[in-house]
């Protein structure tokens, strides 16, 4: 039975919440191996002049410990 570890990560994007999530996974995978799942805990956005300028996510990444 594998042992998993969960960490919390924050990320942002000017494109979308999905892109912010993908950027978090891409960056985390540079130092973490065996990422298994992503749970988006919170989503928020920065609004300037009535337009969304930045999408933000707070998520949990789980990965297998070897």
From TrEMBL:
<dbReference type="InterPro" id="IPR036694">
    <property type="entry name" value="Dodecin-like_sf"/>
</dbReference>
<dbReference type="InterPro" id="IPR025543">
    <property type="entry name" value="Dodecin-like"/>
</dbReference>
<dbReference type="Pfam" id="PF07311">
    <property type="entry name" value="Dodecin"/>
</dbReference>
<dbReference type="InterPro" id="IPR009923">
    <property type="entry name" value="Dodecin"/>
</dbReference>
<protein>
    <submittedName>
        <fullName>Dodecin domain-containing protein</fullName>
    </submittedName>
</protein>
């Amino acid at each position: 039975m594998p042992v998993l570890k969960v960490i919390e990560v924050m990320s942002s994007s000017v494109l979308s919440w999905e892109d912010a999530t993908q950027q978090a996974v891409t960056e985390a995978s540079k130092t973490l191996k065996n990422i298994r799942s992503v749970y988006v805990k919170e989503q928020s956005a920065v609004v300037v002049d009535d337009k969304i300028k930045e999408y933000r996510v707070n998520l949990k990444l789980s990965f297998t410990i070897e």
